[in-house]
Amino acid sequence: MKRRIVLAGIAGTCFALWRKQARPPALLAGRAMGCEWKMLTDEKASLEDLRPGIAAVLEHWEQVLSTWRQDSDLSRHNRGEPAGADLSRVLSLAEQLHRDTGGTFDHRMLSQLTAAGFGPGGSGIDLSSLGKGFAVDRVTGHLREQGIRRFVFSLAGEVRAGEGTWPVEIESPDHAGGGPPETIRLSGQALATSGNYRQGKPQADGMISSHILDPVSGRPVLRPPCSVTVIAGDAATASAWATALFVKGPDSPIPAGMQALWRGSF
């Protein structure tokens, strides 16, 4: 297995949050945006008191950004309605990340995603490679408003840590070989992973047709089972760059201040 340290869509990586902290951390979990979320904190806090606020933040941004909800802000915008303030905020960020990645992160490919068998239908904008990371950042802000400083929060493949050091495990894409997980220690950082081994379509030659699209061809990226994890200052940026790097490949440069870890065959 090759590795390249140079750390999603949103695709395909499972994180186990370790428990080696000075004070045994408490776990809070739930579901949103079609996947599980988890929070660990070693602060003295009533976790159940935090649950409604976290759930409300996630529900709000799912209603803004989902392409699977026909009444969401984004779905209505894709049908021609003007974007509201919250959606405009994310669209502006998506445009900036589109420029920063040289167009490799492209949020305007909903019709191509649907044609590849991964989308909900329709055409226009798809923010799935950004939305979960953006929501994680909003939860982070909410927790800090509640006085919680030491925590780690995950939503599918997007993770963000507050103060303290939090080991996060990234599973191997090589299920057949049973490769060991990679441990990343986060402190005041975010992490996102894009991969093809959970949502992709296996091909006869051992390649996987990914749900991640190449903006140049408009078609799914073909790679063996692999993933790339990006560490950045916020989860939205990490998410977009994980998607972009999966398209670009393991030899692609990344901006200063970020790290990337490839796993699998590539």
Structure description:
The chain has 266 residues and is of the alpha+beta class. The chain has one domain: ApbE-like domains (T-fold, Roll). The protein contains 6 helices and 14 strands. It has an 8-stranded antiparallel β-sheet. A 3-stranded antiparallel β-sheet has the order 2-7-8, with no helix packed on it. The chain has a 3-stranded antiparallel β-sheet with strand order 10-11-12. The longest helix has 19 residues, at 47-65. It is globular. The N and C termini lie close together (9 Å). Mean pLDDT is 88; it is low at 1-21.
Would you spell out the secondary-structure blueprint of this structure?
Layout: E1 4-5, E2 15-17, E3 26-32, E4 35-41, H1 47-65, H2 73-78, H3 85-100, H4 110-115, H5 128-145, E5 151-155, E6 158-161, E7 166-170, E8 182-186, E9 190-195, E10 201-202, E11 208-214, E12 219-223, E13 226-232, H6 235-248, E14 259-264
Antiparallel strand pairs: 1-14, 2-7, 3-4, 4-5, 5-6, 6-9, 7-8, 9-13, 10-11, 11-12, 13-14
